[in-house]
Amino acid sequence: MTTAVAAPFRFFSLQVVRTRRLGPSLARVTLAGPDLSAFRSDGLDQSLSLFLPHPGQAEPAVPVELGDGWWQGWRELPEDVRAVMRSYTLRALRRDDEGHTAEIDVDFVLHGVEPGSGIQPGPAARWAADAAPGDRVLVLGPAVADNRAIRFRPPGDTDLVVIWGDETAVPAACAVVESLPAGTRARVWLEVPHAEDVQHLDTAADAEVTWLVRDADGGGPGASLAALRAAQLSPAEHPYVWLAGESGCVKQLRRHFVGERGVDRRRVTFVGYWRRGLTEEQLREQA
Ligand SMILES: Cc1cc2nc3c(=O)[nH]c(=O)nc-3n(C[C@H](O)[C@H](O)[C@H](O)COP(=O)(O)OP(=O)(O)OC[C@H]3O[C@@H](n4cnc5c(N)ncnc54)[C@H](O)[C@@H]3O)c2cc1C
After folding, report:
1. Is ligand 1 within 6 A of the CB of residue 150?
2. Which atom, in ligand 1's list, is nearest to the CA of 91?
3. In angstroms, what is the span from residue 234 Cα to ligand 1's centroid?
4. Of all protein residues, whose CA lies closest to atom 52 belonging to ligand 1?
5. How many structural domains is the chain composed of?
6. Is 24 a pocket residue for ligand 1 (Cβ < 6 Å)?
7. Is residue 216 domain-shared with residue 254, that is, in the same domain?
8. Where is 213: in which H helix or E strand?
9. Which of the listed residues 21, 102, 186, 279 has the most CB atoms within 10 Å of its CB?
């Protein structure tokens, strides 16, 4: 099987080495495999495409040739056979003694997996909930550390970093905040379903992190918008804003920063990580 696609991205054939529940809504899956030695990333909000097997399959079904034509080949496989393709974030990367990538962590939201949650579970959430050591996964990820699947790019003159993310963007936001250098001012809002989903964050930055708990705060898009509207962000001449999570919510918050606060739109990075009522395939078809 060839694994090279257009540089700087390529396919990595990996296996689950362990899993850990981080709270009621999130599970950490640690992946490893010999291929990883070629994996390079500067981290931050590095996104990856995961190819997951359907229940009952021993491995994700993908075309034998994973060169330039992989997308067409994957699309031509029957829908109920071809691997489930989903976007996730690199939460952490650990190197071996020689400096090669040895393990990566991906944190999955387990939406809809709890019985009676009233939310439709997706195949990726279900896969993560059942993941066990030895399970096989294919990852389309970076072989070059600085690559275009890293979107967090504050301009050099930034004097305040503002971050908002829901639970799907908690992995990206946490990785970003942990890597901010000392002296960086940051205001961070992270929205999660339950109090037990709140995580401890270590950072050298001067970061004020506020967790918005939907259970406790009555939550939803309204609660985040209200919290951000009420926030005093000054002094900030040159803020940089990063927003990721449910599309409708992200759009509303972007409007707040650009329209109500007058932040230059070029200084606002916003990414819809999912949209209520649509699967990732449906979202891709609309794009
Ligand atoms: C760049 C990028 C990075 C991302 N990083 C992460 C990450 O690190 N961790 C992570 O968990 N997710 C992440 N996501 C979001 C993830 O790709 C979506 O949540 C995806 O839809 C999950 O696939 P699924 O198979 O579980 O559900 P799908 O089959 O895609 O959707 C099934 C149903 O569930 C709904 N749904 C999807 N996500 C949620 C949710 N969180 N809560 C409630 N309902 C939902 C859909 O609207 C749909 O109705 C990222 C997305 C992008 C674009």
Report:
1. no
2. 8
3. 34
4. 273
5. 2
6. no
7. yes
8. strand 206-213
9. 186
Nearest-CA residue for ligand 1 atom 1 is 47
CATH number at residue 136: 2.40.30.10
Tell me the β-bridge partners of 137.
14
pLDDT confidence of residue 66? 85
- CA–centroid distance, 46 to ligand 1, in Å, is 16
Kindly report the pTM of this predicted structure.
0.96
pLDDT tens-digit readout, 155-202: 999 999 999 999 999 999 999 999 999 999 999 999 999 999 999 999
Angle, helices 221-230 vs 247-255, to 10°: value is 20
- For residues 140 and 126, what is the distance between their CA atoms, to the nearest angstrom? 20
Is 173 found in the same domain as 127? no
Show the domain range for 13: 4-142
Beta carbon of 231 within 6 Å of any ligand 1 atom? no
Read off the pLDDT band of 29 (50, 70, 90): very high
In a domain, 125, yes or no: yes
136 with 205, same domain: the answer is no
Distance CA 209, CA 185 (A): 11
Does the Cβ of 126 fall within 6 Å of ligand 1?
Answer: no
Same domain as 79, residue 33 = yes
